[in-house]
Amino acid sequence: MGRKLLFDKAHIENIRYYDVYRANGGYDSAEKALKSMTPELVLEEVKKSGLRGRGGAGFPTGLKWSFIAKPEGVPRYLVCNADESEPGTFKDRYLMEFLPHLLIEGLLISSYTLGANSCYIYIRGEYAWIPDILEEAIADAKKNGWLGKNIQGSGFDLEIYVQRGAGAYICGEETALIESLEGKRGNPRIKPPFPAVKGLWDCPTVVNNVETLATVVPILRIGGEEYAKYGIGKSTGTKLISACGNINKPGVYEIEMNISVEEFIYSEEYCGGIANGKRLKACIPGGSSVPILPANLLLKTAKGEPRMMTYESLSDGGFATGTMLGSGGFIVLDEDQCIVKNTLTFARFYHHESCGQCSPCREGTGWMERVLKNIEKGKGKMSDIDLLWDIQRKIEGNTICPLGDAAAWPVAAAIRHFRDEFEWHVLNPEESQVRNFGLAHYADPLEIAAPAAV
Amino acid sequence: MAEEKKLFKVKIDGIPVEVEPGTTILNAARQIGGDIVPPAMCYYSKLQGSGGKCRTCLVKVSKGSEADPRPMPKLVASCRTTVMDGMEVANITSPEVLEARKGVVEFLLLNHPLDCPVCDQAGECHLQDLGYEHGADGTRYEFKRREFEKIDIGDKIQLHMTRCILCYRCVFTADQLTETRQHGILGRGEASEISTYIHKSLDNEFIGNVIDVCPVGALTDKTFRFKNRVWFLKPVDAHRDCENPKCCGKTVLWLRGDEVFRVTARKDKYGEVEAFICDTCRFDKKETKDWIVEGPRKVDRHSVISQGQYVGVHKPKDALPEVLDGRQPKLMMNIHNISQVNRPEIDLSRIEGPAHSDDFKN
Amino acid sequence: MFSEEKLNKVKEIIARYPQGKQKSALLPVLHLAQEEFGGWLSAETMDYVASLLQITPIEVYEVATFYSMFNMKPVGKHVFEVCHTGPCMLRGSDNIIDYIKKKLNIGVGETTQDGLFTLKTVECLGACGYAPMMQLGKHFREHLTPEKVDEIINECRAKAN
Ligand SMILES: Cc1cc2nc3c(=O)[nH]c(=O)nc-3n(C[C@H](O)[C@H](O)[C@H](O)COP(=O)(O)O)c2cc1C
Ligand code: SF4
Ligand code: SF4
Ligand code: FES
Ligand code: FES
Which of residues 29 through 58 in chain C touch A, CB cutoff 8 A? Predict the structure, then answer.
């Protein structure tokens, strides 16, 4: 069994209620921070832990916190990003539903470190029942002196509020989230200024993912240095992976970042292998926006080494042969799945979710969807594949926020690795409507290329 | 003595310029002028918060600053990126920038009707200019274009959303110049549109400025009695003693003979108004006697508005570099090729004297 | 007009933000208004919300039309919002959508004649591991099968009677 830091007590009955959580060591970390540590010391521990943002970008949390501006007399805010809308990702939901106090304790420690006296949890609107769970937990924490004024006699005040979104993936982007929290359209802001200087209501603000903030609790419990001993290299600690698609046991798993992708997919402890005895065709390991990889490149890197569930190993080979850990939304495709169809649903998603502020994303996402739809329906041309490539290339890197990139990458990766499947669709317009391309050669062992002469 | 201010040394396409700290790359380039100025479709120096959206002004920062010479990893919007001391920027000398810009222009034109010859903005449309200079031939878009009905927002302004490029300028204008904004951006993504939601007329003493800031023909002046063929009018600078203290009273009258066909603010060579004018000046003062005429307006930038010189097919081509501030047009769109509406047998340049809309009727 | 109770709720929401930042209450109050006034946001409803928060009506229209959960038109009593993004598609969401279409005899985006059901397709709702799924009111219905869909339809009909 892999070591657990977030879910170690998740199996305890009623752990979602205050009394049970407290009786099992809950709020001990917060107590330690408030009573025996200065904010600077807590920050030091978080830095030592090597914790990286769990929302997708993997930016070092301690470093991010150290950027927050501290002008005299201006309030600072902590915003918890619970928008969780990246297809394939449903881990934060699990944390909030089953371990709400773990999150609240994490918010308390983090707010204390940042000197924020108000904290907002921005949760996607469709998780309509979760705010009730969170609000109940907040009320219980408050009753027991963990929120409100002068918490546990430390002199530190904190209020936590839950804000519901209303259906917009883009509000997961931190500046769009801030706009939305201000009661506006979720249009990402043009940076700079960064939220750390000018965020919510123009005050210094830190936005972090739910899992990131919850992880601060075990870091304080065992110490930053100890935390950093989990995992491999710069991928320290544990990560929540939400696994879905054609596997036997979809669900949310906490993994230590030292296991291989193969183990994650095939072991009984995690996904339990491909459903219905089928073979693995492809996988999108970090949420819909990261590049899709065919089975052969997924399990082994281009150098022939086993691919591990770490930030570094998953991105080994860059976009040419690698992908990203992203948000941990692990989507598995079996041999009967159509890559064109899957790519089309993602293109449709990004088209639907573009805020429309900047022209490449607003116009390009819809165009890609329409071209893909033609190919999928057997009405495509060979030149459409090159056209798609060209469109995604002209979106990527040229937009205000990374949603443009997120829309471009899945299309690029699908064409890069599955071009023959796209061509087959074009060349076999009728057959492609009744059967799939199948596994083809996508799981064949790769020839290990001799180190390329540069 | 003037305060000593340290100026930043910047190079754009190899041309050095010294600018005040806080200047954007775009404005630094405008200080140099000419070819190397990036095109700007959404930025408007007089509107706070504008810019960053259209992405036509993307440039490459090949050297970040003297202190940190690393290049920036992505192209940046020059209208919203401030310069650093020692920064080096590539605009037209960067193939990557030109390629990206071509892409942006294609995106902007994707859903834009290609019926320039019948558009009210023809001749003074920034998108038309942009298409000439940076566009590719033809379109690769094989799907139905977004279309909307023209609607009247009030009796003075017409909105034709089909042409809108969502630059947000009119929204900033209403926010910053008028008491209450009544129109805005509705919907999301590709389905966004400028609208009042429930049909309302825009009514405010400065709202007419949205017509001047609109880079395309989406917002037009309903009181303009000779639409479509603006280049047959003679623009003159004029002013009046406007009662409205916030109005500068300095305008351009667009005349044919002694008749005032429309009134606009004065625009600089980047298509920006020098100062905003009130709606009384714009919509209600349509007699020459209302005005003190100063003299002919030099049309700085806009290609086809060159009064009276529009004779003979090749003439405009020669005139273009002059009105384009020294730049050579990259491409001339043959309007007959792209328009289903205009009638090819009517050659504009063959019409004797000023053309009239009757010339285009059967 | 909101009831006394709802107006207090609105006040409580506004109190979450600093003085003068009551516009931040817009999304929560629109949710409240949609629940209260027939499941959609009419122009009158939006104007009312604008007056409550002391902002201009256009600010409300801009926001309401941006977010997919706000209905700008009346919808059926029970709205089936079936997810059809990649992970759900991989687990057969297309079949579920087809089944519902046949069963209710409506297309996507349509409402049954009795005004009871509306079928919508939506993008990923964060339940990809429990696919196929749909949102029904405040809750998710997961691991859908044709049988489960039948049950849900019956349940909704029973509630209507
Ligand atoms: C289009 C887009 C959507 C995003 N959605 C989410 C999200 O749903 N949840 C999240 O935590 N981060 C999301 N992010 C990342 C956030 O912008 C931000 O980086 C993150 O909340 C920072 O937290 P972290 O450092 O703890 O990961 C998104 C980013 C983009 C560009
Ligand atoms: S990239 Fe897309 S989502 Fe991001 S700001 Fe531009 S239009 Fe909006
Ligand atoms: S109507 Fe004109 S000014 Fe307004 S957003 Fe559209 S293009 Fe810009
Ligand atoms: S002018 Fe700079 S992005 Fe539009
Ligand atoms: S794809 Fe359907 S819930 Fe995520």
Answer: 30-31, 53, 55
For residue A296, count CB atoms less than 10 angstroms from its CB and return exposed for 0-12, middle for 13-18, buried for 19 or more.
middle
pTM of the complete model: 0.93
H or E element, residue A423: helix A403-427
Instruction: Please list the residues that pair with B16 across neighbouring strands.
Output: B11
CB atoms within 10 A of CB B242: 17
Q: Which helix (H) or strand (E) holds B60?
A: strand B58-63
Look at C24 and A84 and tell me if their CB atoms are within 8 Å. no
Phi, psi of B129 (to 5 degrees): -60, -45
- Residue A166 carries which side chain, given as an amino acid letter? A
Neighbours of chain A (3+ CB pairs under 8 A): B, C
Q: Residue A139's domain is classified under what CATH number?
A: 3.40.50.11540
Give the burial string for A405-414 (b: 16+ CB within 10 Å, else e): bbbbbbbbbb
Q: For residue C17, give how far its alpha carbon lies from the nearest alpha carbon of chain A (Å).
A: 9
Q: How far is residue A254's CA from residue A3's CA, in Å, rounded to a whole number?
A: 9
Closest by Cβ to B74, choosing from A356, A395, A397: A397
Q: Percent of chain C beyond pLDDT 70?
A: 100
Nearest CA to ligand 3 atom 2: B214
**Residue from B24, B45, B54 to probe ligand 4 pocket by mutation (most atoms less than 8 Å from CB):** B54
- Could you give the domains of chain C? 4-66 (1.10.10.1590), 78-160 (3.40.30.10)
Report the C-alpha gap between C9 and B256 in whole angstroms. 63
Give phi and psi for B205, each to the nearest 5.
Answer: -70, -10
Give A286 to chain B, closest Cα distance, Å.
23
Based on the fold, state whether residues A158 and A269 are members of the same structural domain. no
Interface residue C93 vs chain A (CB under 8 A): no
CA distance C112 to C106: 6
What one-character DSSP code corresponds to residue B284? Answer: I
Taking 60 as the threshold, does the pLDDT of residue A454 lie above it?
no
SS3 at position C157: helix
Of the three residues A179, A200, A228, the one that is the final residue of a domain is: A228
Chain segment B214-264, per-residue pLDDT in tens? 999 899 998 886 555 666 788 899 999 999 999 999 999 998 888 888 999
ipTM above 0.90, yes or no: yes
Taking a C-beta distance cutoff of 8 angstroms, is the pair A111, A78 a contact? yes
Residue appearing with tokens 């407290």: A22
A365 pocket-lining for ligand 2 (C-beta < 6 Å): no
User: Cβ(A67) to ligand 1 under 6 A?
Assistant: no
Residues B55 and B79: their CA atoms lie apart, in Å, by 9
For residue B206, pLDDT beyond 70: yes
Half-sphere exposure of B30 (CA within 13 A, CB side): 18
Q: Which residues pair with A161 in a beta bridge?
A: A120
Q: Per the structure, how many domains does chain A have?
A: 3
Q: Is residue A2 part of a domain?
A: no
Two tokens at B146? Answer: 């977004």
* Domain that includes residue A204, residue range: 18-228
Do A306 and A346 belong together in one domain? no
> Among A191, A198, A348, A357, which would you mutate to test the B interface (most chain B Cβ atoms within 10 Å of its Cβ)?
A357
Coil, strand or helix: which one is A370? helix
Q: Which residue of C has its CA nearest to B174?
A: C58
Q: Which residue has the tokens 């639409």?
A: B227
What is the rounded CA–CA span in Å between residue B72 and residue B61? 6
- Provide the 3-class DSSP secondary structure of residue B235: strand
CA distance B52 to A45: 39
